[in-house]
């Protein structure tokens, strides 16, 4: 667990060291629709840029306050010069807010290699696949300009296998949380899952595989309490999860977050690339088109609701907490309908908005109150 | 030098200030609480200033008003928008001023000035108390420290701690949390000033440019008297020096008086 | 004594009637009623027959917003349902209208038989996905993704695969329309409607292009009442004719004779994003200063079709394609290419492109100052606006901003905004009006 915490906390040191050691490029990405497989094929280290939970005042001349605090926090990292070691930045189009962070970064921290990938939104149409494959070819041309290297199908397969392995091990780690007393808490899981954003797939896979083995025998001396699922936008609020999972120590109610449907966790690693395909570029495109969608791409059918219901059933969830970034329109558009489906199926829900400028303490108090209502429901029968 | 005597009145949300100017100097100041009746406050402040300068009403050639006093045309000869008044007043005391900041009880505003003192760009913060004096007032209550001691106490701390809350209400909650965690009061005090300076600096940067040696930044308004805020603002803007007028509250009123004189008659 | 002669716009009353009739027509029984975005390819469903009634969402949202007491009821209903306050204000007005079952133009909310739209911002397709859910479901729905990348000169070329992606979705949607309605799609009706779309949007650009004249023949507040036809239904032949044969002709005449929109025009400004629809009197406030807002990229390019010429740094109305489309495939392709060049699509890829276009307007239309509306009601059109501000200032323009909401009156403060405008106009060197 320590290694993951270290990677999370010292992400920038790790990236600089990797760069010095290998002499290769580090490219920062903003959204999980970025085809990391292609970047790995070029032997580039793809790193996701997350915020650091500080008030992003420096961003306010670039992104007004009505856009989500996460996107402003992300931009602040660039404006503060913390990512000057990056050789480039890439955005796969999804939400508007992150596009703003990407373009302001490009304008004010440039000139820097950058690529805007128009990741299609009509993922429920087959037309999106040939479109995306052609866009990947444009990306590859641009990466050739960045690195001076060319790649072939073998390199793409390599990249696919690296990412698939990372996703597989994370899914397996997450499977251990299905048990009655999960051997890993939600805070720990999120910390582990987020650490993958900052590290090379090979390093991560090694540690994660060891962790998975240890989870077979690990036992936690805590009352798991209520089984909670988080549903929401971007979140790496490990501190918040620690707070609510520790409630049981002092309060009469407790909980464990057993699974999430978040941009930073399952939505990114649940789906694999088909390695049996003869056309690896197309296989990658198929994976990104078919993965659990961001709400901006979840239409005309709202397919994500089914994924959420499946997870809720498999993980035997007692309650769902919506964990949204404040002002996150895509998720706000879906929320009332997801909520209704969950509640119609007997799963109580609670809504929380996250904003780096609000202290986490009062949020934990509200969660405590929610957990008490779950216990009260049990008492009725 | 135009020796006409003029008066400038700045109607703030809390205090109405009147300054009588002769030549280059303010010769009489009247400060009164604004209350609900702007007209009354204008008259009172004018009378106080007349008393202070030992003058009669007839000696005053023209009266300019700025701030919330717009529309009260009975005694007023010219209305001046507060950004202009702030800029003109700043340049009077500091001829090289390039950027002006006025942080009052309930609002903050800033302007960038051209070489001849004209307003080139401006920004204001009216909707949010967390970027104004009310923030520090609320925090002094939460901490149980007298308002006038807050600045000095902050300057005694060498330990910056992050303060995330941008909203007065949430900040109170955060301060209470820090108190319970036994954080030294002076460190909390510094965090409060750092947080506010960060927001004000953010507003100043909007009208930029910053960081050149030609920058001459004038800070006025009630909060300019708070040494803790001034030190925090210097750190935030990464400057060695900020210009603080001797009477930071009356600068816009002085500006109004000067513009009233300079802009002759209608 | 005004500096310039003024005259009311001759086709004003006719325009008002046309708009009123159009909204009323939507509630008539019979035919097929289809809801979709003002940016949708509304020409396509016209192939279903001459009894298609098209409901564009955004103009309806704006109409609600122009009546604050009505809008506030709709907003409350939407919020009570569980929608957040920061979601697009047009959508909340629309959904609230459905929840209250109240049409802003009288009677019950006209339920759609189909939903057919496009998607570029985060919320376009979600709008109708949610509207359908609020109507109890069961309304077939197709959305065309137009997030296919920027148009030249903002991209090296309009790549074939990007045009193909949109064209193929359009062709698929035609098959879908046939399956869903059971009707045979009539290519000739579609091809005619497609050409109308192109005519309408080109003509609107030409009309706005004339506003470079000093004095400006039209002011932005009037432009809002006139651009609405392109937003209501681009593919409507009567609207295309109105622009090409009446309005364009009249505006040319006004320019020839030096007729002004604002008689005391002494300075010109440009704005951006939608205005606060419930408070359009801010334009009258500008006029007291002798200031005319002669438009914006929003008014010109929301529906009007323009191309940015990199060499001359000018924004010019997009030339009509040399020939009408003759077949379904040709029409789909032509529309795909035409729509992808929409000026208000380009900033979704980078604010740089919009800054270029805004700069071209500010210079070409001889603007003294720029007023940007940080519109909390539409994240799509206000995306990147802070960068546009910085970019325009860098290019030597004078810029002010104000916060507000196009559709939610609670987030707009008239007094504060007017004060800011006054300070800004004074900083431009304009004398205070004697009678503010």
Order of helices and strands of chain A: HHEHEHEHEHHHHEHHEHHHEHEH
**Assembly state of the chains shown:** heterotrimer
Task: Specify the helix fraction band of chain A.
Answer: 40-55%
In terms of DSSP E residues, the strand content of chain A is 5-15%
Largest interface: A-C, 45 and 49 residues
Spatially, the strands of the biggest sheet of chain B line up as 3-2-1-4-5
**Secondary structure tally, helices of chain A:** 16
Q: Mean of the pLDDT scores of chain A? A: 94
Mean pLDDT of chain B: 88
The level-1 CATH class of the domain at 2-158 in chain A: Alpha Beta
Structural class of chain B: alpha/beta
Q: Helical proportion of chain B?
A: 40-55%
From the N-terminal CA to the C-terminal CA of chain A, the straight-line distance is: 40 Å
- Poorly predicted tracts of residues of chain B: none
**Poorly predicted residue ranges of chain A:** none
Q: What do these coordinates show?
A:
The complex is a heterotrimer of chains A (381), B (266) and C (436). Chain A has 381 residues and is of the alpha/beta class. Chain A has a domain at 2-158: Rossmann fold (3-Layer(aba) Sandwich). Chain A has 16 helices and eight strands. Chain A is globular and about 60 Å long. Chain A starts with a helix and ends with a helix. Chain B folds into two domains: 5-86 and 250-262, ATPase, nucleotide binding domain (Nucleotidyltransferase, domain 5), CATH 3.30.420; 95-244, 2-Layer Sandwich (Nucleotidyltransferase, domain 5), CATH 3.30.420.40. Chain B is built from eight helices and nine strands. Chain B has a five-stranded mixed sheet. Chain B has a four-stranded mixed sheet with strand order 8-7-6-9, sandwiched between helices. In chain B, helix 2 (82-93) packs across helix 8 and helix 4 crosses helix 6 (185-207). Chain C is α/β, with parallel strands linked by helices. Chain C has one domain. In chain C, strands 2-1-3-4 form a four-stranded parallel sheet, with helices on both faces. Chain C has a four-stranded parallel sheet with strand order 6-5-9-10, with helices on both faces. In chain C, strands 7-8 form a two-stranded antiparallel sheet. Chains B and C meet through helix 2 and strand 8 of B and strand 10 and helix 16 of C.
């Amino acid at each position: 667990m320590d290694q993951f915490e270290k990677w999370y906390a010292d992400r920038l040191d790790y990236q600089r060291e990797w760069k010095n050691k290998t002499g290769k490029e580090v490219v920062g990405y903003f959204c999980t629709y970025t085809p990391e497989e292609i970047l790995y094929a070029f032997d580039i280290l793809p790193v996701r840029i997350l915020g650091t939970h500080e008030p992003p005042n420096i961003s306010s001349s670039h992104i007004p306050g009505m856009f989500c605090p996460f996107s402003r926090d992300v931009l602040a990292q660039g404006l503060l010069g913390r990512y000057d070691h990056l050789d480039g930045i890439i955005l796969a189009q999804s939400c508007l807010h992150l596009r703003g962070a990407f373009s302001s970064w490009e304008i004010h921290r440039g000139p820097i290699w950058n690529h805007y990938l128009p990741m299609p939104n009509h993922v429920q149409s087959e037309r999106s696949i040939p479109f995306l494959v052609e866009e990947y070819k444009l990306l590859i041309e641009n990466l050739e300009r960045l690195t001076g290297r060319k790649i072939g199908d073998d390199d793409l397969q390599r990249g696919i296998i690296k990412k698939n392995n990372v996703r597989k091990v994370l899914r397996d780690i997450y499977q251990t949380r299905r048990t009655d007393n999960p051997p890993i808490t939600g805070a720990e899981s999120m910390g582990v899952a987020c650490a993958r954003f900052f590290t090379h797939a090979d390093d991560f896979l090694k540690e994660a595989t060891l962790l998975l083995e240890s989870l077979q025998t690990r036992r936690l001396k805590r009352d798991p309490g209520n089984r909670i699922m988080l549903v929401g936008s971007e979140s790496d609020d490990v501190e918040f999860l620690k707070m609510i999972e520790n409630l049981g120590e002092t309060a009469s109610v407790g909980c464990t977050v057993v699974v999430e449907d978040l941009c930073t966790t399952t939505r990114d690693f649940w789906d694999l690339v088909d390695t049996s395909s003869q056309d690896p570029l197309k296989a990658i495109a198929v994976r990104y088109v078919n993965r659990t969608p961001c709400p901006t791409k979840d239409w005309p059918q709202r397919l994500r609701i089914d994924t959420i219901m499946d997870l809720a059933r498999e993980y035997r969830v007692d309650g769902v907490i919506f964990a949204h970034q404040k002002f996150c329109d895509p998720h706000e558009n879906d929320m009332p309908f997801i909520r209704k489906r969950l509640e119609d199926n007997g799963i109580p829900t609670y809504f929380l908005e996250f904003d780096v400028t609000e202290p986490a303490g009062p949020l934990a108090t509200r969660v405590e109150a929610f957990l008490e209502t779950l216990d009260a429901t049990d008492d009725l029968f | 030098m135009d020796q006409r005597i003029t008066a400038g009145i700045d109607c703030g949300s809390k205090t109405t200030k009147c300054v009588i100017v002769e030549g280059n100097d303010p010769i009489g100041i009247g400060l009164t609480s604004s209350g609900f009746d702007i007209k009354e406050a204008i008259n009172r402040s004018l009378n106080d200033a007349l008393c202070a300068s030992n003058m009669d009403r007839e000696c005053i050639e023209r009266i300019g008003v700025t701030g919330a006093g717009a529309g009260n045309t009975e005694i007023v000869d010219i209305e001046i928008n507060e950004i202009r008044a702030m800029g003109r007043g700043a340049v009077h005391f500091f001829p090289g001023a390039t950027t002006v900041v006025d942080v009052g009880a309930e609002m903050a505003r800033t302007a960038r000035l051209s070489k001849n003192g004209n307003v080139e760009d401006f920004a204001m913060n009216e909707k949010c108390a967390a970027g104004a004096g009310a923030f520090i007032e609320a925090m002094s209550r939460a901490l149980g420290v007298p308002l006038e001691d807050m600045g000095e106490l902050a300057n005694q701390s060498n330990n910056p701690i992050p303060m995330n809350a941008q909203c007065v209400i949430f900040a109170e909650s955060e301060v209470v949390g820090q108190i319970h965690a036994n954080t030294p009061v002076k460190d909390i005090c510094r965090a409060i000033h750092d947080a506010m300076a960060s927001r004000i600096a953010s507003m100043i940067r909007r009208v930029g440019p910053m960081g050149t040696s030609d920058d001459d930044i004038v800070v006025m308004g009630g909060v300019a008297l708070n040494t803790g805020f001034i030190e925090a603002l210097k750190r935030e803007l990464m400057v060695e020096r900020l210009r603080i007028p001797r009477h930071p509250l009356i600068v816009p009123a002085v500006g109004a008086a000067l513009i009233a004189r300079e802009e002759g008659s209608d | 004594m005004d500096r310039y002669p003024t005259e009311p716009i001759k086709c004003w009353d006719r325009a008002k009637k046309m708009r009123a009739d159009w909204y009323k027509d939507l509630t008539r029984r019979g035919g097929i009623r289809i809801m979709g975005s003002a940016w949708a390819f509304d020409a396509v469903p016209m192939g279903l027959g001459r009894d298609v009634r098209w409901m564009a969402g955004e103009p309806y949202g704006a109409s609600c917003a122009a009546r604050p007491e009505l809008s506030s009821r709709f907003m409350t209903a939407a919020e009570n349902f569980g929608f957040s306050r920061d979601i697009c204000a047009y959508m909340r007005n629309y959904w609230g209208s459905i929840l209250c079952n109240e049409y802003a133009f009288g009677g019950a909310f006209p339920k759609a038989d189909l939903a057919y739209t496009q998607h570029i911002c985060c919320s376009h397709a979600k709008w109708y996905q949610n509207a359908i859910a609020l109507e109890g479901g069961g309304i077939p729905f197709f959305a065309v993704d137009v997030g296919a990348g920027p148009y030249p000169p903002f991209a090296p070329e309009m790549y074939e695969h990007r045009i193909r992606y949109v064209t193929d979705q359009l062709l698929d949607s035609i098959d879908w329309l046939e399956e869903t309605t059971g009707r045979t799609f009539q290519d000739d009706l579609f091809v005619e409607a497609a050409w109308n779309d192109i005519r309408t949007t080109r003509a609107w650009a030409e009309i706005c292009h004339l506003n470079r004249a000093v004095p400006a023949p039209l002011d932005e507040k009037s432009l809002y009442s006139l651009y609405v036809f392109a937003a209501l239904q681009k593919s409507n032949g009567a609207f295309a004719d109105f622009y090409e044969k009446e309005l364009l002709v009249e505006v040319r005449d006004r320019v020839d004779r030096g007729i002004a929109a604002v008689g005391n025009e002494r300075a010109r400004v440009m704005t951006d994003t939608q205005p606060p629809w419930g408070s359009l009197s801010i334009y009258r406030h500008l006029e007291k200063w002798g200031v005319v807002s002669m438009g914006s990229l929003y008014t010109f390019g929301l529906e009007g079709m323009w191309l940015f010429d990199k060499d001359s740094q000018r924004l010019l109305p997009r030339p009509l394609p040399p020939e009408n489309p003759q077949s379904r495939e040709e029409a789909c392709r032509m529309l795909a290419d035409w729509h992808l060049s929409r000026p208000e699509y380009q900033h979704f890829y980078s604010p740089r492109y919009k800054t270029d276009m805004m700069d071209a307007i500010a210079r070409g239309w001889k603007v003294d100052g720029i007023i940007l509306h940080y519109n909390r009601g539409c994240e799509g059109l206000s995306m990147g606006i802070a960068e546009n501000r910085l970019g325009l200032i860098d290019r030597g323009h004078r810029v002010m901003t104000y916060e507000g909401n196009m559709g939610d009156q609670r987030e707009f403060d008239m007094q504060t905004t007017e004060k800011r405008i006054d300070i800004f106009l004074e900083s431009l060197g304009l004398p205070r009006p004697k009678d503010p």
